[in-house]
Automatic annotation (TrEMBL):
<keyword id="KW-0346">Stress response</keyword>
<feature type="region of interest" description="Disordered">
    <location>
        <begin position="98"/>
        <end position="131"/>
    </location>
</feature>
<dbReference type="InterPro" id="IPR025708">
    <property type="entry name" value="HSP15"/>
</dbReference>
<feature type="domain" description="RNA-binding S4">
    <location>
        <begin position="8"/>
        <end position="71"/>
    </location>
</feature>
<feature type="compositionally biased region" description="Basic residues">
    <location>
        <begin position="116"/>
        <end position="131"/>
    </location>
</feature>
<keyword id="KW-0694">RNA-binding</keyword>
<comment type="similarity">
    <text>Belongs to the HSP15 family.</text>
</comment>
<dbReference type="InterPro" id="IPR002942">
    <property type="entry name" value="S4_RNA-bd"/>
</dbReference>
<dbReference type="InterPro" id="IPR036986">
    <property type="entry name" value="S4_RNA-bd_sf"/>
</dbReference>
<keyword id="KW-0238">DNA-binding</keyword>
<dbReference type="Pfam" id="PF01479">
    <property type="entry name" value="S4"/>
</dbReference>
<protein>
    <recommendedName>
        <fullName>Heat shock protein 15</fullName>
    </recommendedName>
</protein>
């Protein structure tokens, strides 16, 4: 996209690539250990280099992406997707984990209706005396 001579911070690149809604969220994720740069924890001020690998944890998913281009500007989603590509192993693993989560949720039986007032009292009594 846009090779610049200015220094580019990792948190700014993550924001421009639309992994996080704000730079503050990107910075917090990096500091919290949710983003690994070439397999190691990193700092928000790290300068990303084309060809390096990032592992990003978002919610339940881990994404492994390879940086293909650098940009300091946040643009449309289609342009942001050109800044990186996700590895095949990462895609397969995410799909498998999503399938496992859905299968696990399908096995749980939801109640037909909410508990009545009497049933809620009984549940509260059981919890209070059981603890």
């Amino acid at each position: 996209m846009n090779q610049t001579t200015e220094k580019l911070r990792l948190d700014k690149w993550l924001w421009a690539a639309r992994f996080f809604k704000t730079r503050a969220l990107a910075k917090a994720a990096i500091e919290g250990g949710k983003v690994h740069y070439n397999g190691n924890r990193t700092k928000p001020s790290k300068e990303p280099i084309v060809g390096d690998t990032l592992t990003i944890r978002q919610g339940w998913d881990d994404k492994t992406v390879v940086i293909t281009d650098l940009s300091q500007q946040r643009r449309g989603a289609s342009e942001a997707q050109q800044l990186y590509y996700e590895t095949e192993e990462s895609i397969k693993l995410r799909e498998k984990r999503a399938f496992d989560r859905k299968a696990n949720n399908a096995s749980q039986i939801a109640p037909d209706s909410r508990p009545t007032k009497k049933q809620r009292r009984d549940i509260r009594k059981l919890k209070d005396h059981g603890a």
